[in-house]
Design brief:
With 182 residues, the protein is α/β, with parallel strands linked by helices. It has one domain: Rossmann fold, CATH 3.40.50.11310. The protein has five helices and ten strands; from the N terminus they run αβαβαββαβββαβββ. The strands form two sheets. Strands 1-9-8-5-4-2-3 form a seven-stranded mixed sheet. Strands 7-6-10 form a three-stranded antiparallel sheet, with helices on one face.
Length: 182
Amino acid sequence: MPTIFLSPQESQDHTVFRSLLRAMSRPGEANPLPLGAKAALQAIGQALLDLETRFYTPDPHLQQQFLRLGSRASGPAEADFLFFPEADERIWADLVQAPIGSLLHPETGATVVVLTRPSPGARLRLSGPGLAAPAPLETGLPEGFWRLRNERVSFPLGWDVLLVEPQGVCRAVPRSTTVEVA
């Protein structure tokens, strides 16, 4: 078998993508990313976005970075991926519009990538596929985020959530996961 050599960028993309796959298969579990939080958002975009995907972000710097990848900017209602470097009340209007897919095409539901705060947020209890028993999770996101997520998710419809913590750790909450706000 021939040896495959990866460039440093390809190696980083590969590492980030594998970390995201692990996170999606093990909801709520911490998965390290090879970068700090702000750079992690850009690295996640680098690993997930391509010529066929649409993205939304309110951050002009991230938007410029993602446009360089060949991905298309869109509004929140058409985006495959939504990136939020800040999780404040201003994102609610965008999240309400995030695609949840359809019964014929549930895969068209969006993936929401959010940089969380170091402060304590809502206390959650996760259950569902990938979890042997209900698991606690505390995020830097307010209860309103999770209530909105629960209103918009009715498996197989809904959005997958990737939480990027300040220390560069990623946790996933797929749409198949039941989230109870404590």
